[in-house]
Amino acid sequence: MTPDARVQTAAEILDRIAAGEVAERALTTWARGARFAGSKDRAAVRDHVFDALRRWRSASAAGGGASGRHIMLGLLRLDDADPDTLFTGTRHGPAPLTEEERSGGAGPEGHDLWDLPDWLCARLDAAYGAEAEAVATALRVRAPVTLRVNTLKADVTSAVRALADEGIETAPNPLAPCALTVTANARRVAQCTAYGDGRVELQDAASQAVVDLLPLAPGARVLDLCAGGGGKALAIAARLGGGPVEAWDADPGRMRDLPPRANRAGADIRILRAPQDAYDLVLTDVPCSGSGAWRRTPEEKWRLSPERLVQLQAIQDGILDRAADLLAPGGTLAYATCSILPNENDARIDAFLDRRPGWRSVLRRQFLPGPDGDGFFTAHLMHA
Ligand SMILES: C[S@@+](CC[C@H](N)C(=O)[O-])C[C@H]1O[C@@H](n2cnc3c(N)ncnc32)[C@H](O)[C@@H]1O
Fold first, then answer.
1. Are residues 195 and 284 in the same domain?
2. Do residues 254 and 281 both lie within one domain?
3. Looking at the 3D structure of the chain, how many domains does it have?
4. Is the CB of 108 under 6 A from ligand 1?
5. For ligand 1, is residue 251 a contact (CB within 6 Å)?
6. ipTM > 0.90?
């Protein structure tokens, strides 16, 4: 595909997403019907679409409209590219710019540059004050690709060397000792040997840092109550020298990949039909807005509503209450979100402490999205 055809394709996919289709599905549907598109074309179209979703509001302002065509026009202007070199009217490319399009578009200014809906700009303002703009704009750029060295199978030095042998360059990540930021050839990771044999996992560095903060004595009985794909359960198992870690999820289908992942990693993860009790540590990595990771799922920032946030808060409260009853005396209840919204973080912990006299929080930490990792929040709760 020519560069202009990629832009036209991205514009059409953006129109489908604006009409309500999920981004991944819109991309897959296009790819299935586009036999002519090679892997580089698919990657380029995907990059256009995700860049546009991250900067939808500013691109719309710069492009002078909300259609996929306007958004792609605005994106090129934001990136100081000359739209006339791509809007040329070739067979598969976008039609040449009209006079109206050429003179349209302005700015972006003010909250347009935050690339969030107004209600979320207000929430961030209230939460972070002078830092709010930096938090919002951190979500406008691509997320780093980060690996966790699986200490059950390798040490950091040998993993770095094995990756470099396959052309994958990495740098140490300050958020976690086993975290490596991929600095070159990130697209090769999924096919490389070190990933295939479980020496490295893909995991955000702040997610790793959340696990590093957990109090894990040798032999601790641990439950991951919202195990999902098992990213944190596997990291816990590594800290415990292999496990065991008990895993449960309200949606067992979310744990489908966990047995093969655990096998590859050399970790003992025991999937439960029902959570038991008397755990030394229960991790609740609760469902949330995902706002700390919106660089990876940018359509979510436009789809989240205040009503959905309230629903999520109720789910988070319910999970905390359930987990509290599964602990052994002296055990720790660990709460985690990949959210930057206080309603899902400090406010949930404060509400829990209000509901449960005799409990105290012994740790709270907010990680903000940045070059090293996503936004995460974690808190540790104990019965006094
Ligand atoms: C943030 S994801 C977990 C990610 C996972 N811990 C990881 O590190 O890869 C949240 C998970 O909570 C699960 N969940 C939703 N409601 C739940 C509930 N009431 N109890 C337990 N898990 C729930 C979801 O199915 C989802 O898999």
1. no
2. yes
3. 3
4. no
5. yes
6. yes
Of ligand 1's atoms, which has the minimum distance to the CA of residue 336? 1
Structural domain harbouring 160:
146-203
- Say what the pLDDT of residue 107 is: 82
Instruction: Say which amino acid occupies 277.
Output: D
Question: With a 6 A CB cut-off, is 292 part of the ligand 1 pocket?
Answer: no
Q: Is 249 marked within a binding site?
A: yes
Confirm whether 121 is domain-assigned.
no
Do 170 and 219 have their domain in common?
A: no
Name the residue with the closest Cα to ligand 1, atom 11: 226
Residue 251, annotated ligand binder? no
Distance between CA atoms of 93 and 102, rounded to whole angstroms? 17
How many whole angstroms from 287 Cα to the centroid of ligand 1?
A: 5
Residues of the chain below pLDDT 50 = none
Given 172, 203, 234, the domain boundary residue is 203
321 and 367 share one domain: yes
Strand order in the sheet with 169-172: 169-172, 179-184, 146-149, 200-202
Same domain, 221 and 291: yes
Q: Are residues 221 and 288 in the same domain?
A: yes
Would 137 be classed as within a structural domain?
A: no
What single letter denotes the amino acid at residue 299? E
250 lines ligand 1 (CB under 6 A): yes
- Residue 125 placed within a domain: no
pLDDT tens digits for 149-162?
999 999 999 999 99
User: Following DSSP, what letter does each residue of 315-336 receive, concatenated?
Assistant: HHHHHHHHHHTTEEEEEEEEEE
pLDDT in tens, 147-205: 999 999 999 999 999 999 999 999 999 999 999 999 999 999 999 999 999 999 999 99
Active-site annotation, residues:
338
Ligand 1 centre to CA of 284 (Å) is 8
Q: Which pLDDT value is given to residue 220? A: 94
| The CA-based dihedral angle spanning residues 197, 199, 204, 207, taken in that order and rounded to the nearest 10 degrees | 110
Cis, bond preceding 260 (omega within 30 deg of 0): no
Mode of pairing for the β-strands spanning 179-184 and 146-149:
antiparallel
What pLDDT is attached to residue 291?
Answer: 98
Mutate to test the pocket of ligand 1, among 281, 286, 319, 326 (most ligand atoms within 8 A of CB): 286
- Taking CA atoms only, the protein residue closest to ligand 1 atom 1 is 287
Instruction: Judge if 65 and 171 occupy the same domain.
Output: no
- 230 and 373, same domain (yes or no): yes
Please give the Cα distance from 54 to 384 (Å, whole number).
Answer: 44
State residue 153's pLDDT score: 97
| Ligand 1 center–CA 229 separation, angstroms | 9
